[in-house]
Amino acid sequence: MNEQQLIPYLFRTEFSKISSVLSKLFGLEHIEVAEDIASETFLSALETWPYKGVPENPAAWLYAVAKNKTRNYLHRNKIFSEKIIPGLQTGTINSFEIDLSEDNISDSMLQMLFTLCHPAISAEAQIGLSLRTLCGFGIDEIATAFLTNKDTINKRLSRAREKLREEKIRIEFPALEEIDLRLDTVLTTLYLLFSEGYYSENKEEVIREGLCREAMRLTFLLIENQYTNQPKVNALYALMCFHASRLPARKNNNGEIILYEQQDENLWNRDLISNGAYYLHKASVGNRISRYHLEAAIAYWHTVKPDTEEKWENILQLYNQLLQIEYSPIAALNRTYALSKTNGKQEAITEAEKLKLEDNHFYFVLLGELYTGIDDRKAKDCLEKAVRLAKTNSDRQTILKKL
What we know:
This protein has helices spanning 3-26, 31-52, 58-76, 81-90, 102-116, 123-134, 139-145, 150-166, 176-198, 209-224, 231-245, 270-283, 291-301, 309-325, 329-343, 345-355, 361-371, 376-389, 393-402. It is mostly helical. The chain starts with a helix and ends with a helix.
């Protein structure tokens, strides 16, 4: 990895660690200060490394600079007086230590994850704050992910932070009796974060692997903690592994989506498929089944390329269970495709048209697929509607090829 690639890579991996530890130290009301210090640390790297060279241990260099910048800030700024003045008066400030050990980083990030996913703020704000604080995303990138502008994102994040302050939410691991309730919100946020990476409505980049990796990294933190290492967490991680395994085969050199049927399975990551199977097995304990269990099982069958009767019958039955647990129009639409594979196109058309998803281009893409060979004029009409509704250039190009 060359110098130009190194700093962006480290920003992705280390910014969140530094800002999480400092936010925990300062308190949620001063999260912007923590982020500013983390940002200034990387600015120092940009200013220093091109001239003096990359240090032998870049992460350790960043931690040392962050500690020094934090100490300097504490010395000169009075907003931390309730924490710092006693140390100044007794002369113990020089021994003030910022703990950037691996254990404290993991604990801080996990506590921050639960804090940012607090039900007091909206789901969009939860994801936005997680992208900013835990994933090191800039405001421009978050605005792109949400298909909006910087001002909107800044206002949304400011309102969310203010709400957390008003509610006096502390950066801490929730009480044991609250973990299960709060964990569902955390998992929803991580699921949405991964989904945004797996299929983004960003007009320039329909697949954003960085988002997928961040979602997987944060989910794995939950697995490593004894209180959150639950079956549904393992199931979500398995789901992510199965989907991520096919990422290298999902787009061509022009950035266009390659549909499942045309994907080169030789490009699928077999290690991730094996990891998915391992964590899905770990998830198969207890007597509660979550949406993540079912979606992971569906994703597993999509790592089996041949179109066998067993494969599509299993997928259909899994979708039937999923819709009973948690109905969603997209899951119902996907079920219809599985139905066409098991019971034929005509039955699937009848079921699909009951959904009436008239503003969804995937709906018309599916109908176009189902009508092909039965009523090609109708198939063409559906695909033309899909082109008009498509939100990304990549989707439009894929549909035009079908046409």
